[in-house]
């Protein structure tokens, strides 16, 4: 079992290394979106702070994943 875990860790590290640029852009995009989404929800809807933060976290996590998939697709087709 130990060797399977070590293999999985190495495989994950290799995946991260191969996708470092896309991952970094996705993380930066997602963090920025947290702030933008919370501000918009709070300002435009008058929602409570906890509701604005919840939306600000859940939605950009999904958007960040979508961006990563889109970026990998784009890079594979147009680079």
- Strand element count: 0
Radius of gyration: 17 Å
Helix content: over 70%
Estimate the strand proportion: under 5%
Q: Helix count?
A: 3
- Helices and strands, in order, run as HHH
Structural class: mainly alpha
**Major sheet size, sense and barrel closure:** none
Unreliable stretches covering 5 or more consecutive residues? none
Mean pLDDT rating: 89
Count the domains: 1
Span between termini: 39 Å
Shape: elongated
What report would you give on this structure?
With 79 residues, this protein is mostly helical. Helices cover 92% and strands 0% of the residues. The relative contact order is 0.13. It has helices spanning 2-18, 20-45, 49-78. Helix 2 packs antiparallel against helix 3 (49-78). The protein has one domain. It has three helices and no strands. The protein starts with a helix and ends with a helix. The radius of gyration is 17 Å and the shape is elongated.
């Amino acid at each position: 079992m130990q060797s399977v875990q070590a293999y999985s860790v190495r495989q994950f590290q290799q995946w991260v290394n191969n996708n470092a640029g896309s991952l970094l852009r996705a993380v930066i995009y997602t963090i920025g979106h947290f702030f933008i989404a919370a501000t918009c929800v709070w300002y435009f809807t008058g929602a409570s702070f906890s509701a604005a933060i919840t939306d600000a976290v859940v939605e950009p996590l999904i958007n960040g994943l979508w961006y990563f998939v889109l970026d990998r697709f784009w890079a594979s087709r147009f680079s």
